[in-house]
TrEMBL record:
Taxonomy, superkingdom: Bacteria
The protein, known as: Prepilin peptidase A24 N-terminal domain-containing protein
Domain (Prepilin peptidase A24 N-terminal): residue spans on this chain: 11-91
Biological processes annotated in GO: signal peptide processing
Cellular-component GO terms for this entry: plasma membrane
Keywords: Membrane, Transmembrane, Transmembrane helix
TM segment ranges: 85-106
One GO molecular-function entry: aspartic-type endopeptidase activity
Keyword Chloroplast: no
UniProt entry tagged with the keyword Hydrolase: no
Length: 108
């Protein structure tokens, strides 16, 4: 059971890290961070398989599936860091109120 929860914590961390990175890159450009993700090169809307944190970057060799424009390495790095921090918080704290505080601080 602990392995399942550990995997869940890491996956949640990767997903939240991915979303926060996209939001952080869009806000300075005054773009909506609620819209669909697009390739910066060909402007094509990304499909579900292209939105899986870390995995999609590796499968696509760090390039857009259609125009082959290189993707920033910052995306998988932020996603991995966030996943590791969420997992570490779970492993060190466990299911206690402090975990919620830690996750909120990590997210900020």
């Amino acid at each position: 059971m602990s392995l399942v929860i550990s995997c869940y914590a890491a996956i949640c961390g990767g997903l939240i890290g991915s979303y926060l990175h996209v939001a952080a890159t869009r806000v300075p450009l005054r773009l909506s961070f609620w819209g669909r993700s697009r390739c910066e090169g060909c402007r094509r809307v990304l499909g579900p398989s292209e939105l899986i944190p870390i995995v999609s970057y590796v499968i696509q060799s760090g390039k857009c599936k259609h125009c082959r424009m290189p993707l920033s390495i910052s995306y998988p790095l932020i996603e991995m860091a966030s996943a590791c921090l969420y997992l570490l918080a779970w492993l060190l704290i466990g299911l206690r109120l402090e975990l919620v505080v830690s996750i909120l601080l990590i997210t900020l």
